[in-house]
Amino acid sequence: MTGITGSFTFGFYRKIAKQSFGKSVGFFFVFVLLISGLASLKYTLVLKSQLPQIILFLNDSIKSLSSEMPKIEIKKGILVEPQTSYIKEWKDKDEVFVFVIEPDPDKAAITLNKYKNCMVLTQSQLTTKSTKKRASVSEMTKYNLEKISSFILAPVPSGFSVAVDNKPSFDVNALFVERLVKKLFLFAWPLSFVFFFVYFCFVKVCQVAFFSLAALWINVFLKAELSYKELLSIGIYALVPPVAMSLVLELAGINIAYQGVVFILGYIFYIYQGIKASKTIAEVEM
């Protein structure tokens, strides 16, 4: 904690340049852990506030789908129901995704060629096809139904009734969706924390490495004669004030004009003052 508060004081950098580089690296990872925890906490709380809307959207989608989808039954790896074709399209701007049930194997290939992004269920196979924008080649994945001994997906007024391998059926309805979403939410903070930690580690290491070029120039300009490791140590601690400022603005939901430029100038400013302070103490020691 002393390293975080001290990094805002120019005189603090006098001892930073002389401490072991390993200690500076250790501080870097502790600081990344801290900002990752805060960032993940913020987005977890935002997600929590959106849970009612997410649950409502999923429930509406399930009810809408169940009102028009036919019963699907698979026995011993063969599609028993339905015996007629079924097509459902979802459009999102320029993207179209299609779910197709095609009992006639002769029409399955035609259906796959017709749509760029689709899922096609045939008598003995489930095939997914995806085509990325600006890509001429589609990726297809096929799943054989032979390992499925029994599967039933039947529409009911509140959603779907599902039965697998002759086990008791269960309903995918509003209560099921609410319980599932709340259980998945328990993983929101740890997963977001891991994501932010990996992200910040990569980004902040790149920033320290890139701005070390500016530190080299400042080192020459001030004739401080600091080693590259000493400059990196200063760069690690000088990262704290602008990152802290950016994080506070982000957590508060405040956007300022040219925030990126302010970050860069603030970082270079603290690097400059840190090198200047280290040069002062070096001159005194001489």
Give the SSE map.
Elements: H1 2-6, H2 13-16, H3 21-66, E1 72-75, E2 78-81, E3 86-92, E4 95-101, H4 105-114, E5 118-121, E6 125-130, E7 139-144, E8 150-156, E9 159-164, E10 170-172, H5 174-185, H6 188-222, H7 228-238, H8 240-252, H9 259-285
Parallel strand pairs: 4-5
Antiparallel strand pairs: 1-2, 1-8, 3-4, 5-6, 6-7, 8-9, 9-10
Helix pairs in contact: 3-5, 3-6, 3-7, 3-8, 6-7, 6-9, 7-9, 8-9
Q: Any key phrases for this structure?
A:
286 residues, 57% helix, disordered C terminus, alpha+beta, five-stranded antiparallel beta sheet
The SSE string, one letter per element, is HHHEEEEHEEEEEEHHHHH
Sheet with most strands: strand arrangement: 2-1-8-9-10
Note poorly predicted spans: 281-286
What's the overall average pLDDT, rounded?
A: 85
Query: Total helix count?
Result: 9
Please compute the radius of gyration using only Cα atoms: 29 Å
Q: How does this model look, in words?
A:
The protein is α+β, with helices and mostly antiparallel strands and 286 residues long. It is built from nine helices and ten strands. The chain has a five-stranded antiparallel beta sheet with strand order 2-1-8-9-10. Strand 4, helix 4 and strand 5 (118-121) form a beta-alpha-beta unit.
In short:
This protein has 286 residues and is α+β, with helices and mostly antiparallel strands. It has helices at residues 2-6, 13-16, 21-66, 105-114, 174-185, 188-222, 228-238, 240-252, 259-285; strands spanning 72-75, 78-81, 86-92, 95-101, 118-121, 125-130, 139-144, 150-156, 159-164, 170-172.
